[in-house]
Design goal:
275 residues; alpha/beta; Rossmann fold; 10 helices
Length: 275
């Protein structure tokens, strides 16, 4: 271990740590995650998506995933609130005819009631009441989310002081309860913990700066002893490994859901009394 050389490499990674859209190609081949999820987010969306359907992608990043769906551009809408990504979307999506609007997924969406057949959200913020409002009757919501306990082993490895969970409500059962309370019917709900692996500490430095809400106040010089320890782990085990926390949720807007439930319950009670 050449500590001076490593320090220079890590400082360089810290210097260049920025992201364009949601592009992690800078550390491609140096880390691995989400390659063994038990579901295929894209495939699930395609299962429900028909060519004539209008689709909204909330917190689209740079629109990379949205465009990968190859859906008719005239039926695509997207929102994004992070300033650098907003500018990227204006440059990339608007010229293609995608209806892009700057908006935060947690607040009121800038669309009329019952506009979309499908709303998707990958690793972004959302508001179940707003999703209900903009979805057409029988519309579908599909989301893959980062869970509350994501990357905690890596946080503990790098930081001098362990912060509280940045998003403590990010558990599947809490999200499912919130959507069903609004009136959604759950179609699919899965939650998993899977490995995240790094084969280069410099890649981990870059990653920690990009995911800054998970690694608050991370700084190479301030956390240098922890980084040297991480390098020792890498040299001993050949990999630095943590866990990602992910969940998938698919739900349908059914206007008469609660009325139907009460009808069924009432019918069962009546039938029991007769018997």
């Amino acid at each position: 271990m050449n500590k001076e050389q490593l320090l220079n490499e890590w400082l360089e990674e810290e210097k260049v740590a920025h992201i364009h859209g949601w592009d992690f190609s800078h550390i491609h081949g140096k880390y691995e995650e989400e390659n063994d999820l038990p579901w295929d987010y894209s495939k699930i969306i395609r299962h429900y998506l028909l060519p004539e359907m209008k689709l909204l992608d909330i917190d689209t990043g740079g629109g990379e995933f949205l465009l990968s769906l190859k859906h008719p551009l005239c039926h695509l809408s997207a929102t994004e609130a992070y300033s650098p990504n907003v500018e990227l979307c204006k440059e990339k999506l608007l010229p293609l005819g995608v209806d892009f609007r700057e908006a935060d997924g947690l607040t009121k969406l800038p669309f009329n009631n019952e506009t979309f057949d499908i709303v998707i959200n990958r690793h972004g913020a959302f508001n179940e009441n707003e999703i209900w409002r903009v979805l057409k009757p029988k519309g579908i919501f599909i989301t893959q989310q980062v869970g509350a306990e994501n990357d905690r082993e890596l946080v503990e490895l790098l930081l001098n002081e362990i912060p509280p969970l940045p998003f403590p409500k990010q558990y599947l059962h809490k999200v499912q309860k919130a959507f069903e309370k609004v009136g959604f019917v759950t179609f699919q709900a899965e939650e998993v913990y899977r490995p995240i692996k790094f084969w280069n500490v410099g890649a981990l430095v870059w990653f920690a700066h990009i995911i800054e809400w998970e690694f608050p106040n991370f700084d190479v010089k301030k956390c240098l002893l922890n980084l040297y320890h991480a390098q020792e782990v890498l040299e001993k085990n050949g990999v630095i490994e943590g866990r990602i926390h992910r969940f998938l949720y698919v739900a349908k807007k059914v206007l008469l859901y609660w009325a139907e439930i009460w009808f069924v319950k009432g019918f069962r009670i009546l039938r029991t009394n007769k018997n």
